[in-house]
Amino acid sequence: MKIRASSFRGSSSWLLSAMLAASAAGCGTEDQDLESDLASAESEIIGGSSVSIATRRSLGLVEVRGDCSGSLIHPDWVLTAAHCLAFYDLSQNWATAPRPDGTPEQRMAIAVEQVGTSDLAIMQLAPPAPGSAWPNVTRTMSSEPISTLVGQPITCYGRGFTAYDSPFGLTGSDIWRTLTRTVAELDYSDNSLVTHSTSAGYETAAPGDSGGPCLRDGQVVGVASWAEWDCEIPEFCEETITKIHKSHWRSVVEFKNYIDNAQARPPGGTANWTYPLLGVDWVHFPSTNAAWFTKIDNTIHFRGGLRTEGTNTALFSLFSSEAPPSEVYIPTNLCGGANGRLHVIPDSPIAAVQVALGSGVGWSAAQCFTSLDGVSFTRNALGTESLSLINGWTNSPYGTRPAAALLSGNIVRLQGAIANGSVAQPFTLDPELRPDATVFVPVDLCGAAKGRLMITSGGAVLIQTFGGFSDAQCFTSLEGVSFTKDSTGFEALSLQNGWTAHSPSSRIARVANLGGIIRFQGAINTSGTHPTAFYLPPSMRPATDVYVTVTLGNSEKGRLRITPSGDVNVETDGAWSSAQQFVSLEGAWFGL
By the 8 A CB rule, do 149 and 214 touch? Predict the structure, then answer.
């Protein structure tokens, strides 16, 4: 998404789904905040020719939220611009298509997913109502290399503003039009396509066209994203198209397959992710998802990766509605699998999410890469039960909350922090919270030291450390610890390259899609050196690389690197022998 300064005459820049409604109505206020501006107005083609109802149905052209454009890539899936959906709850997103007689038919969204870090999103629709006349359209993505599109014509569709003739600059809306333009250049900063007007400056995309498809030879090559124009000077009357292939994807084919196979995902198979406000100098890591978060059943989940060339430890901010009531510390992984943690500080009204380093880890590791995948915490104590501490363990060191557990469906989540125990066992879980086999889950200790919980089927919880036990006594965070009670809904994974199940005391390797969250369970080991332990089925593969923290032999920490091709690779910052000895998949997850 790009936002540039705008005016209503002369040289202008538009985020095509935004920035216009209040001013076009003549009643805007100068102090509207950014979120309100971006949510207010959307974009339409100036010039071009009209599109019939029959053509709209045959091409699968849909209105998104009433103020953006989009297109069907499958009867139940819409491709649009990510910025059209980013500022709304799932219940506020929908698509509308015309019936054969032109009357509108609406379907609500049940899942929304940004595709990588680009201004692209796919939206899954609820099943159609009885008597539906919804278009039965399936469209594939172009796999044409981006460099070959320069100088080629592409045809774009949208339902934004249609004229540039009012005192406020733009008039007309809700009329679908099409425009064929030649790709003039590439924006090499993000591999977008740029088109210029060829009709005295009076043909371009405008607010309302955002998310509208651009086609070549019947395949989608991109969606309308933003425009910049002085429509009296044709070379400045231009539109930027978010290309279907982004440079950071591993291959054009993988990106194409990811979109084309969207319909294979189960209903509700993606979470509704929200974009946080990044800290100074922090940017999205090129080969991972953008930094996003979502709230599911009172638990905040993060995804994506960040990097920086600066020294600011604050990664991003959360509003109070997403912040915990007290400070939380959650383990994560940095560049090369180095050990780190996230520290959430709930200062109202904005909570800061900071990165901290493990012992012996330099700041350059966080600058190079900080992973958010697999990081979560419970929002508050709603539905939790307090844990009865034993063996001298006490609650709430360093301003944290007391130890508690939450059963959410089949998932057990812990929260809080403890300290000062004399032996490794701080508490025992009640029967309804116990796993059906022993599980090992990474935890954060004093100074971001490496550690893990061993939780037995009998409910005993033991703290194990990579360093000395004093690391646990000083501080043990339970935040982010989660595991599944049993294997309900999970499917077995086929291990590859010499990897085997660890032992009878651990569960076999399994995976499940739980509401858009891909969760693992089990433990594995190998006598070999091949990092790829198994492959995920197509419906569970991420859009980009993801890096998830896991615990290895002797409480060493490692990570899983999961690719868009479905490869799941084991990586460790320490000796490979710790991965050969033991890799726990328990508690590992990532968001689609």
Answer: no
Indicate if the pLDDT at residue 231 is higher than 50.
no
pLDDT in tens, 458-515: 999 999 999 999 999 999 999 999 999 999 999 999 999 999 999 877 999 999 988 7
Bridge partners of residue 222, in order along the sequence: 243
**Whole-number Å distance between alpha carbons of 427 and 390:** 6
Query: For 460-494, b where at least 16 C-beta lie within 10 A, e where not — what string?
Result: ebbbbbbeebebbbbbbbbbbbbbbbebeebeebe
Using alpha carbons, select from 591, 586, 548 the residue that is nearest to residue 268: 591
Q: From CA 83, how far away is CA 18, in angstroms rounded? A: 9
Please say if the pLDDT value at position 325 is more than 50.
yes
pLDDT tens per residue, range 13-58: 334 433 222 222 223 332 333 223 222 223 333 445 788 999 999 9
Residues 6+ apart with CB under 8 A from 425: 390, 391, 460, 461, 462, 463
CATH of 491-591, one of 2.60.40, 2.30.29, 1.10.246, 2.40.50: 2.60.40
- Which pairing describes strands 370-371 and 305-308: parallel, antiparallel, or unpaired? antiparallel
DSSP 148: G
Give the burial string for 353-381 (b: 16+ CB within 10 Å, else e). Answer: bbbbbbeebeeebbbbbbbbbbbbbbbeb
In the CATH scheme, what architecture does the domain 146-258 have?
Answer: Beta Barrel (2.40)
491-591 and 385-484 share a CATH fold:
yes
Domain ranges of the chain: 49-125, 146-258, 273-378, 385-484, 491-591
Question: What is the architecture of the domain spanning 385-484?
Answer: Sandwich (2.60)
> Structure pTM?
0.67
Name the percent of the chain lying above pLDDT 70: 75
How far lies 311's CA from each of 347, 355, 567, in Å?
21, 11, 33
- The domain covering 49-125 belongs, at the CATH homologous superfamily level, to Trypsin-like serine proteases (2.40.10.10)
CB neighbour burial string for 537-553, b if at least 16 within 10 angstroms, e if fewer: eebbbbbbbbbbbbbbb
